[in-house]
Amino acid sequence: MISFQKEQIFIVTGASSGIGKATALLLNELGATVIAIARNTERLTQMKAGCKYPENTYIEVKDLAENIDALPDYVKSLKEKYGKFSGMAYCAGITDVTPVSFIDFEKLQHIFLTDYFAPILFTKGIADKRNNSGTGTSIVLISSMSGVYATKGMTAYCGAKAALINSAKCIAKEIANKGIRINTISPSDIETPMTMNDNIKTLLEQRIHLYPMGIGKAEDAANLTAFLLSEKSSWITAQNYILDCGSI
Ligand SMILES: NC(=O)c1ccc[n+]([C@@H]2O[C@H](COP(=O)([O-])OP(=O)(O)OC[C@H]3O[C@@H](n4cnc5c(N)ncnc54)[C@H](OP(=O)(O)O)[C@@H]3O)[C@@H](O)[C@H]2O)c1
């Protein structure tokens, strides 16, 4: 059984909604201390209220797409506030459907800021030995099936998520000798507020027949994340886990 100690502190980004929220709730239930990051204070507060041990969850309101170059310093400031980190689940992200004929640099930049540049520079901060608890530290980045298989109309999102998967593997090779692990999870369709918006919902309805066990739940991704953050996965690094209910 997976369990954590209160002294194990994990950052969870995107903790106000969907996969990040489910991950924050699960890590808290399993005994860890959680630093929950997102922009929406009200939804973060609701998540904290739903925690089994709310006294072990701390809220940090932050736009991760702003001042990205300073993210490693932001991680350092969190370390000074809370202590060294046992790991991170980076679940913050945005999606986008834009045909290539409408793509421009601003659009690409917008998606890459949130879905690629921010997670990589946040990871740089966690991987810094001054900010983590050394051997056993584990990082999980939520990528997407769109980073592995192309989806019509999703040039920017697919590009950012693919880049995230391969960069994580590079980082894994650099930090393995410090006993620090990093893996990505690539879910296909998970029912969250992201997939319930009108554009994506239509795509989802077209794909529903692919899932004999139904559409995924945020908890499905959270369970795998908790395993990868735990010592039970201590020989697993540089992997990308496809979470698609066998649909491919
Ligand atoms: N749902 C799926 O089917 C699916 C499939 C494959 C991959 N994914 C990936 O899984 C991750 C989580 O998605 P989800 O479905 O859980 O979506 P969601 O319910 O929309 O949650 C997204 C989270 O990201 C946070 N976020 C977005 N932009 C941010 C920013 N600039 N700064 C700080 N926080 C930000 C949001 O918080 P605030 O709005 O409060 O800031 C929210 O907590 C994403 O990376 C997504 O690409 C999802």
List the helices and strands and how they pair.
Blueprint: E1 9-13, H1 18-29, E2 33-38, H2 41-49, E3 57-61, H3 71-82, E4 87-90, H4 105-127, E5 138-142, H5 155-175, E6 181-187, E7 190-191, H6 198-207, E8 216-217, H7 218-229, E9 240-243
Helix pairs in contact: 1-7, 3-4, 4-5
Bound molecules: NADP nicotinamide-adenine-dinucleotide phosphate (NAP).
The site of NADP nicotinamide-adenine-dinucleotide phosphate has 28 residues, from helix 1.
CATH homologous superfamily caption: NAD(P)-binding Rossmann-like Domain
For the largest beta-sheet, the strand count, sense and barrel status come to:
7 strands, parallel
The low-confidence parts are none
Number of domains in the coordinates? 1
Helical residues, percent: 25-40%
Radius of gyration: 17 Å
Compact description:
By secondary structure, the chain is an alpha/beta fold.
